[in-house]
Model the fold of this input.
Amino acid sequence: MARRPSTDHFIKKKVEVEDADKSATFGGAPKRRGAPFDPNTENLFLLGLAGSGRQALGQALAGKFGMQYLDLRGLDSNVDQKDVENVLQSTGWVVALGRPVLADPAVAEVVPESRAYYLIADVPLLLERTGGGNPERESLAAELNELEPLAMSLARHTLRAEKPVQELLEDMEMSLSLPLGI
Done:
Protein backbone atom coordinates (compact mmCIF):
# COMPACT_ATOMS: atom_id res chain seq x y z
CA MET A 1 0.00 0.00 0.00
CA ALA A 2 1.38 3.42 -0.99
CA ARG A 3 2.27 5.75 1.82
CA ARG A 4 0.43 9.10 1.86
CA PRO A 5 2.63 12.18 1.83
CA SER A 6 2.71 14.20 5.04
CA THR A 7 0.75 17.45 5.16
CA ASP A 8 2.30 18.84 8.35
CA HIS A 9 4.47 21.24 6.33
CA PHE A 10 1.54 23.22 4.88
CA ILE A 11 0.79 26.81 5.86
CA LYS A 12 3.93 27.54 7.82
CA LYS A 13 4.72 30.91 6.31
CA LYS A 14 4.38 33.73 8.84
CA VAL A 15 3.48 37.15 7.51
CA GLU A 16 4.14 40.35 9.42
CA VAL A 17 1.24 42.80 9.52
CA GLU A 18 1.07 46.45 10.48
CA ASP A 19 -1.54 46.05 13.24
CA ALA A 20 -2.10 42.49 14.45
CA ASP A 21 -5.15 43.52 16.51
CA LYS A 22 -7.11 44.91 13.55
CA SER A 23 -9.63 42.78 11.75
CA ALA A 24 -11.92 43.24 8.81
CA THR A 25 -14.75 41.15 7.48
CA PHE A 26 -15.67 41.14 3.83
CA GLY A 27 -18.62 38.99 2.85
CA GLY A 28 -20.12 37.57 -0.26
CA ALA A 29 -18.59 35.82 -3.19
CA PRO A 30 -17.04 37.97 -5.89
CA LYS A 31 -19.56 38.80 -8.60
CA ARG A 32 -17.62 41.26 -10.68
CA ARG A 33 -14.42 43.19 -10.60
CA GLY A 34 -14.27 46.91 -10.95
CA ALA A 35 -12.59 50.05 -9.75
CA PRO A 36 -12.36 51.11 -6.11
CA PHE A 37 -15.33 53.02 -4.70
CA ASP A 38 -16.29 56.27 -6.43
CA PRO A 39 -18.88 58.35 -4.51
CA ASN A 40 -19.90 60.10 -7.73
CA THR A 41 -20.92 56.92 -9.54
CA GLU A 42 -22.06 54.58 -6.74
CA ASN A 43 -24.30 54.37 -3.69
CA LEU A 44 -23.59 52.93 -0.25
CA PHE A 45 -26.28 50.94 1.53
CA LEU A 46 -26.32 50.35 5.30
CA LEU A 47 -28.62 47.58 6.53
CA GLY A 48 -29.64 47.06 10.13
CA LEU A 49 -32.24 47.50 12.83
CA ALA A 50 -32.86 50.62 14.90
CA GLY A 51 -29.99 50.93 17.34
CA SER A 52 -27.43 49.28 15.04
CA GLY A 53 -25.77 52.62 14.35
CA ARG A 54 -26.67 52.88 10.68
CA GLN A 55 -27.87 56.49 11.03
CA ALA A 56 -24.71 57.78 12.76
CA LEU A 57 -22.47 55.83 10.38
CA GLY A 58 -24.50 56.92 7.34
CA GLN A 59 -24.27 60.59 8.25
CA ALA A 60 -20.53 60.27 8.91
CA LEU A 61 -20.00 58.54 5.55
CA ALA A 62 -22.06 61.13 3.69
CA GLY A 63 -19.98 63.92 5.22
CA LYS A 64 -16.68 62.17 4.56
CA PHE A 65 -17.39 61.39 0.90
CA GLY A 66 -19.55 64.43 0.04
CA MET A 67 -22.62 62.27 -0.57
CA GLN A 68 -26.29 62.72 0.30
CA TYR A 69 -27.81 60.74 3.18
CA LEU A 70 -31.26 59.14 3.29
CA ASP A 71 -32.69 56.95 6.06
CA LEU A 72 -35.38 54.61 4.77
CA ARG A 73 -36.76 53.03 7.93
CA GLY A 74 -39.88 51.86 6.19
CA LEU A 75 -41.99 52.59 3.17
CA ASP A 76 -44.71 53.83 5.51
CA SER A 77 -42.43 56.66 6.68
CA ASN A 78 -42.40 60.18 5.23
CA VAL A 79 -40.60 58.94 2.12
CA ASP A 80 -42.65 58.45 -1.04
CA GLN A 81 -42.21 55.21 -3.05
CA LYS A 82 -41.23 57.32 -6.09
CA ASP A 83 -38.45 58.93 -4.02
CA VAL A 84 -37.14 55.47 -3.14
CA GLU A 85 -37.11 54.47 -6.81
CA ASN A 86 -35.35 57.73 -7.79
CA VAL A 87 -32.62 57.16 -5.20
CA LEU A 88 -32.15 53.56 -6.33
CA GLN A 89 -31.69 54.75 -9.93
CA SER A 90 -29.28 57.58 -9.07
CA THR A 91 -25.81 57.71 -7.49
CA GLY A 92 -24.00 59.61 -4.77
CA TRP A 93 -26.23 58.44 -1.91
CA VAL A 94 -25.61 56.81 1.46
CA VAL A 95 -28.87 54.99 2.17
CA ALA A 96 -29.76 53.41 5.51
CA LEU A 97 -32.29 50.62 5.04
CA GLY A 98 -34.58 49.10 7.65
CA ARG A 99 -36.37 45.76 7.58
CA PRO A 100 -39.62 46.86 5.86
CA VAL A 101 -37.73 48.43 2.95
CA LEU A 102 -35.50 45.39 2.45
CA ALA A 103 -38.55 43.32 1.54
CA ASP A 104 -39.28 45.65 -1.40
CA PRO A 105 -38.41 43.80 -4.66
CA ALA A 106 -36.91 46.95 -6.22
CA VAL A 107 -34.54 47.30 -3.28
CA ALA A 108 -33.71 43.59 -3.26
CA GLU A 109 -32.72 43.88 -6.93
CA VAL A 110 -30.39 46.89 -6.56
CA VAL A 111 -28.69 46.33 -3.20
CA PRO A 112 -26.73 43.13 -3.98
CA GLU A 113 -25.04 44.82 -6.94
CA SER A 114 -23.99 47.79 -4.80
CA ARG A 115 -21.72 48.46 -1.87
CA ALA A 116 -23.98 47.14 0.88
CA TYR A 117 -22.98 46.72 4.53
CA TYR A 118 -24.94 44.91 7.22
CA LEU A 119 -24.42 46.21 10.76
CA ILE A 120 -24.64 43.07 12.87
CA ALA A 121 -25.99 43.71 16.36
CA ASP A 122 -27.40 41.47 19.05
CA VAL A 123 -30.62 42.07 20.97
CA PRO A 124 -29.00 43.40 24.20
CA LEU A 125 -27.03 46.02 22.24
CA LEU A 126 -30.10 47.11 20.28
CA LEU A 127 -32.17 47.37 23.48
CA GLU A 128 -29.44 49.36 25.21
CA ARG A 129 -29.14 51.84 22.34
CA THR A 130 -32.86 52.29 21.78
CA GLY A 131 -33.73 52.48 25.48
CA GLY A 132 -35.94 49.41 25.24
CA GLY A 133 -36.54 47.03 28.08
CA ASN A 134 -37.48 43.42 28.66
CA PRO A 135 -41.02 43.79 27.25
CA GLU A 136 -39.54 44.63 23.83
CA ARG A 137 -36.94 41.84 23.96
CA GLU A 138 -39.10 39.14 22.35
CA SER A 139 -40.46 41.31 19.55
CA LEU A 140 -36.98 42.66 18.81
CA ALA A 141 -35.55 39.12 18.74
CA ALA A 142 -38.28 38.11 16.28
CA GLU A 143 -37.55 41.15 14.11
CA LEU A 144 -33.82 40.35 14.17
CA ASN A 145 -34.51 36.73 13.19
CA GLU A 146 -36.53 37.99 10.23
CA LEU A 147 -34.00 40.63 9.15
CA GLU A 148 -30.74 38.74 9.51
CA PRO A 149 -31.12 36.15 6.71
CA LEU A 150 -32.44 38.82 4.35
CA ALA A 151 -29.66 41.28 5.19
CA MET A 152 -26.97 38.61 4.92
CA SER A 153 -28.25 37.63 1.48
CA LEU A 154 -28.24 41.24 0.23
CA ALA A 155 -25.10 42.70 1.81
CA ARG A 156 -21.59 42.13 0.51
CA HIS A 157 -19.96 43.14 3.78
CA THR A 158 -20.67 42.90 7.49
CA LEU A 159 -19.71 45.33 10.22
CA ARG A 160 -19.82 44.79 13.98
CA ALA A 161 -22.32 47.34 15.28
CA GLU A 162 -20.77 47.49 18.75
CA LYS A 163 -17.70 49.27 17.36
CA PRO A 164 -17.46 53.07 17.62
CA VAL A 165 -18.39 55.01 14.47
CA GLN A 166 -14.76 56.04 13.88
CA GLU A 167 -13.61 52.40 13.80
CA LEU A 168 -16.47 51.48 11.47
CA LEU A 169 -15.44 54.34 9.17
CA GLU A 170 -11.86 53.00 9.11
CA ASP A 171 -13.10 49.47 8.34
CA MET A 172 -15.28 50.80 5.53
CA GLU A 173 -12.49 52.95 4.10
CA MET A 174 -10.32 49.87 3.87
CA SER A 175 -13.00 47.81 2.10
CA LEU A 176 -14.00 50.71 -0.17
CA SER A 177 -10.42 51.06 -1.39
CA LEU A 178 -10.71 47.56 -2.86
CA PRO A 179 -12.36 46.85 -6.21
CA LEU A 180 -16.00 45.78 -5.99
CA GLY A 181 -16.25 42.04 -5.61
CA ILE A 182 -13.06 41.54 -3.62
In short: The longest strand covers residues 115-120.
